[in-house]
Amino acid sequence: MTTNPTPHDPTRPPTSSTTPGRPQGTRLAATLITLSTVLVGLMAGLFFAFDVSVMPGLAAGDEQTYVTAMRAFNQAIDGNPLFGSVFLLALVAAAASAVVEYRGGRRATALWVGVAAVAYLVVLVITFGVNIPLNNELADGGAVEQMTDFSIVERFKTTWVTTNIVRTLLCTAALTALARATLLHGRTTR
What ranges do the domains of the chain cover? Predict the structure, then answer.
């Protein structure tokens, strides 16, 4: 007569509850991919909204309105901890996801998440190197009613707007890479 081994019997092969063959860290990896996808998606949406509505709308008005509105937008964004968290954590989540995927043996997934992290890193470089300095120059221009030199508006209409389009495209590329990584992650963790 044979007896059923206990669930903790070392001679018994693993049961389905231990998910044999499932790569390590899949729950953490899935959480990080999801988080980075949501955060990058939020940033892509913000940049896109500026591209298609905010900046064209401002360009249709006068220069004083342009300066006043951009100052208000920048002040609202700079003073918002939620924006700052989303803006910076998008990179942290993507980079952490790439590391977890790589360590879990999911190299193709790690590559796509890495591509997303690099694309988003370029977004940060552009933001800190171009957009924020222009925002600061605009903020330091004195009272709008007393401004006589509105050349900053022309730089916004060319440089700031162009780099924002680049940020939108890079975020969209990062989002696409994260979508691919999500598909690959799902296939390798079933």
Answer: 25-188
